[in-house]
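Hi there,

I know you've been waiting on this one. I reran it after we fixed the sequence typo, so this is the corrected version. Both the input and the resulting structure follow.
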Amino acid sequence: MKVILTGGGTGGHIYPALAIAEGLKERIDGVDILYVGAKKGMENTLVPKAGLNLETIDVSGINRASVLRTALALSKFPFSIKQAWDIIKKFKPDIVLGTGGYVSFPVVFAAGYWAGCKTFIHETNAKMGLANRKLSSRVDCNLLTFEETAPMVSPYKFRVTGSPVRKELLDIHYTRKNKAFAFKAQPFSIIVFGGSRGADSINRAMMELLDRYENEDLQITWVTGTVNYERIKQAVERKWGRGMRLNLKLYPYLYEMSAVLAASKLAVCRAGASTLSELTLLGLPAILIPFPYATDNHQEKNARALKEKNGVEIIIDEFLDGNTLYNMIESLRCDDQKMQVMHENLLKEAKPDALNDIITAILND
C-alpha cells in the first residue's frame, strides 16, 4: 500500500501526520509513505528526523493582513497543484491524507483526480481551517477532533476520531481514568507554557504573578519559550536572587513535557488543538489563554468547546495581566470540588483511541 501524508505550517498540522505515519507502519507491513510539504515549512526539519521520505512543492499561506501577499500566494496555487499532480502521478498512492495547513490543499485537491485513490482530511481544531473547509466536500471522509466541527461537513462524510497524542501520555490516562485525582496534595503544582517560542502576554503576566506568590508554598514550572528565556531568567535572578519560598522552575523549552504535565495540578497555556488533546487525556484542569491572532480565531473556539463542558477556564489575551491570572488561579486552588469536576469532565472528552480510529477509518472507508 502507498500513502501520501501532507500538512504543514505549524507543528499542530505536522505532528498528527507523523503520528499517523507511525500508526500505519505498525498496522501495515511494508507500507510505503511519502510526506509532501512546503519548501519553507517546519516539515523540512521534522519529517526527515522521523525517517520519512519528503517531497516539497512551492506554496505559501494566505496573509490576510496584506492584499499583495495574499495575491502572490493565490497566484502560486495553480503551479502548486501541478507540482502536486506530478508527485501523485509518479508515486501512485492508494490513500492521500491531509492534516491541514496551506500545503495540504493542492495535494489533496490533486489527489481527488487520481483514479482509485481515497482522500481524507484530519481536522484538529473546533473550527475548520481554510484549506480543510475547501476540501471537506471533495474528500471521502473528514476525520474530526471535536464533535462541534461536525455541522460544518456533510453528515455522510465524517467521523469524530480525536487527535493522536504522545504515546507516553496514554498510560497515564488509563491510570487516572478511574482514580480520584489528589488536588489536595502539597505543594500545589502549576505548569505554564505558551509554545516553543513563548507567549509575550503570558510571560508578562507571570512576572507580575511572581510578586504575589514569592512567599507561597507552591511549585510553578514556567516554560518561557526560547526567544525571551535569558531576559526573563536575568530579571528573576535580579529580583529574587536570594531565593523565595515559591519553588520556581524556569525553562526555555521542556523536552520532558509529558512528565511535568502528569505531575501538575493546573495548566496555564494557549489553546492549540494538540495541547487540548493532551489536557483531556490527563484530565488536567487548565486556564486557557487563546492566541489572539490564530487563523479564524480557532484557538478561542477550541477553548470555548471545552469551557462549555466545564473542563477549563478562559482568559482572553487582551485582558490578561498578573492580577487577573492570580485571581483565577486562587479561585481554582481553593476549590478542590470544582477542580475534581473539571478533571472528570476533561477525561470524558479524552479520545485515547484516536490514532487507532484514524487508521481504521482510512483503511476501511
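Quick highlight: The chain has two domains: 2-160, 169-349.

Best,
R. S.
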